[in-house]
Amino acid sequence: MPIFKGNYVKTLLNKLGKQPESVLFSHVANELRQMGQLHQALEIAQRGATRNPAYVNGWFILGLIYIDLDQKPDAIQALSKTIQLDSDHIRAYEKLASIAIKLQKWQEAQHYLNSIMDRRHNHSQSKHLLSEVRKKVITQNDLSQKKVWLEAAELTDPSPKEKLRLKIVQNIRKYLVNDSNPRKMRPS
User: pLDDT tens digits, residue range 116-147?
Assistant: First the structure.
């Protein structure tokens, strides 16, 4: 850490110590986050967000810290609070979409990306991601429908004539579990 950066943060911490109710906490927490001092940043951000519950940037910085700590549920909660306070906070939507993509929650990702596009029609990165996520949602919906059909087919008692069909259904089930690409079949 450069000396001037450390002195700057110490100065900010001193100011925050004298004015604990100040919204300066988000700036201090973000500086600490960028320096890799995540646990100290988290402590300051949590305290500040509690003291200043209507301060949008405080919740956003808290969400970023949770992301850096790989605490996705807490990050989602803090970023959702950010959007609750400021429904046009594009960066919060971007972070929520990113988390949803990492968790493979395609419909949630699509929702957040659509929210960005509703607010910024020419947001090229979101436009590209939205295209990819829509493909995943369609694939996910197709796979869900196929699983329902397979489960319904397995509920009936197979007659001798249907044994071959049941074997095919079982092979398709293996395929669906092992590979989510519906265009390429594997021989059993």
Answer: 988 887 877 777 777 787 777 777 666 666 66
SS in 3 state form for 94-159?
HHHHHHHHHCCCHHHHHHHHHHHHHHCCCCHHHHHHHHHHHHHHHHHHHHHHHHHHHHHHHHCCCC
Instruction: Write down the pTM of the prediction.
Output: 0.69
Note whether residue 118 is domain-resident.
yes
Measure the CA–CA gap between 113 and 101, rounded to whole angstroms.
11
In single-letter form, the type of residue at position 124 comes to S
Phi, psi of 54 (to 5 degrees): -100, 5
Residues 68 and 81 in one domain: yes
User: Model confidence over 39-52: pLDDT tens digits?
Assistant: 999 999 999 999 99
